[in-house]
Design a protein that fits this description.
The chain is α/β, with parallel strands linked by helices. It contains eleven helices and ten strands. The strands form two sheets. It has a six-stranded mixed sheet, with helices on both faces. A four-stranded mixed sheet has the order 4-6-8-9.
Length: 278
């Protein structure tokens, strides 16, 4: 039975997990409990071989309004940070490690169903794919609260949308719509709110049913590794070696034969594929 006090809900069906931020009365603002439950849920699902894709959304009419500021003036102070680390049993380095969701082998898809402010939008930038409701209000509002953007967004946002656009949004902290976020390239698509979750689930189910687990994991590895690579030839050499490695795996045979025989594939490989040293 679900914990009635849980701030994160998890449902799994046919290889697709839906993770729902569940503080609708607070617009799903993140507190220490939600922080812990969300990280634990995502990494647990990533370890589960049967889970092929994860969709993250918010309960009610918001995705996440940001960090819970009920502590008032102490919200972002040293004591609050110390209490956060002590509550979760982490230090500053391991905080970053546990939030490195791009290292997961399971695809993560954010369905931004409403307001996504502060950490409510930097959190989805840690996921692989983002879809948003057209009327969602999205803002990197940190400078308007006297703080700075966090959760790795200063690294990833310029790579997603370019330096000029990233600095415009990060420095001004202004709010944009989901439609504008799609035009910027922050999200892949903006959809009517009532179509958003279905679209995210359709994508997740397509991945779960029709793609080889190991292949997807390696694609993620190559893309994120490539974001840190300055040597284009080295990136191509790594890709080529892994291409030949994958071609020798049973699922490469299965993929070809399923196509030839006009049938659904029956994947046998693991998403936790052990890569050769390339």
């Amino acid at each position: 039975m679900d914990d009635p006090n849980a701030t994160v809900l998890v449902e799994v069906d046919e290889g697709v997990a839906v993770v729902t931020l569940n503080r609708p009365e607070k617009k799903n603002a993140i507190n220490f409990q939600m922080d812990a439950e969300l990280h634990d849920a995502l990494w647990r699902l990533d370890r589960d071989e049967s889970v092929r894709a994860i969709v993250i959304t918010g309960a009610g009419d918001a995705f996440c309004a940001g960090f819970d500021m009920s502590a008032g003036a102490a919200t972002f102070g040293a004591e609050t940070h110390a209490a956060h680390d002590e509550t979760l049993g982490v230090d500053s380095d391991s905080v970053a490690e546990r939030a490195a969701f791009w290292r997961m082998v399971t695809p993560t898809i954010a369905a931004i169903n409403g307001a996504a402010m502060g950490v409510g939008i930097t959190l989805p930038l840690l996921f692989d794919v983002r879809l948003a409701a057209e009327d969602a209000k999205i803002g990197f509002v940190f400078t308007r609260r006297g703080i700075i953007p966090e959760a790795n967004c200063n690294w990833i946002l310029p790579r997603l949308i370019g330096v000029s656009r990233a600095l415009e949004l990060l420095m001004s902290g202004r709010t944009i719509s989901g439609t504008e976020a799609a035009a910027y390239g922050i999200v892949s698509r903006a959809l009517p709110r009532d179509e958003l979750l279905l679209a995210a689930l359709d994508l997740a189910r397509d991945i779960a049913a029709n793609t080889a687990p190991g292949s997807v994991a390696i694609v993620k590895h190559l893309v994120y590794r490539g974001l840190e690579e300055t040597d284009r030839l080295a990136a191509m050499q790594r890709e080529t070696k892994l291409t030949w490695f994958v071609g020798e795996q049973p699922d490469a045979i299965e993929g070809v034969m399923a196509f030839i025989e006009r049938r659904p594939p029956a994947w046998k490989g693991s998403k936790h594929v052990e890569l050769p040293d390339v």
